[in-house]
Amino acid sequence: MQNISTQQGEIRQVEGQATTEGPLQGQRVATGPTLLESFLPEADIVVNDEIVVMAPPEVTYAALRRADLAKSRSLVLRAVLALRVANVRRARRRLGLAPLPAPARVSLQNVQDYGQIKLAEKEGSEIVIGAIARPMRTESLFSGRTAAEFTAFDCPGHIKAAGSFVVTPYGQRRTLLSYEARIRATDTRTRRQLFFWDALTAPLMQLVTSRVLRYMARVAERQCAAHAHAHSYRQAT
After folding, report:
1. How far is 211 from 221, CA to CA, in rounded Å?
2. What is the pTM of this model?
3. Which of the residues 42, 97, 160, 189 has the least number of beta carbons within 10 Å of its own beta carbon?
């Protein structure tokens, strides 16, 4: 597992857009817009991170879909997720929604439980999730919006966020697992709030993103090792 993190890159302002760029960004060959860009082509903040996984793409993609982040051993990630789960539990209770199970599962398979939207999936390659909310109001996540409504939504006072996980072959039986988040405010006042909170929390969020990718890579590599062990055992017997 080789981590290629944007924490080693630099945060810069480009035409009013805050971006975090990693060491490999600029070495990539453009292949056209991603699914993520089709849902949120313009963004106020863009964050990128990536990691090399010592497992083939199909194993990495399967792990990406099923990994339960609540089982991570990272204290930072677990603390952030615990706060998020607590906020969502309160919001669901106030809205009269069914409570989250205990213990809560946090994966790409149940994003709707947390008020997020599964925007699109390109099987074996990319998964895109999104959310629309008012700043600091968790209840506003649960407005029942759909993927079809996401791109056109432009009501003032909201923040739109979309994130994608992309699996790309990387050498022999290795995978480049990339994550990109794009965030956009729907009006100037909300944009100022967004930049303020980003200035306070950007280092933490970059660390959390890195820990998420590392955990997903670890799940994939463990699965790959288990497959190799089972194959060796069958050959020996």
Report:
1. 15
2. 0.82
3. 42
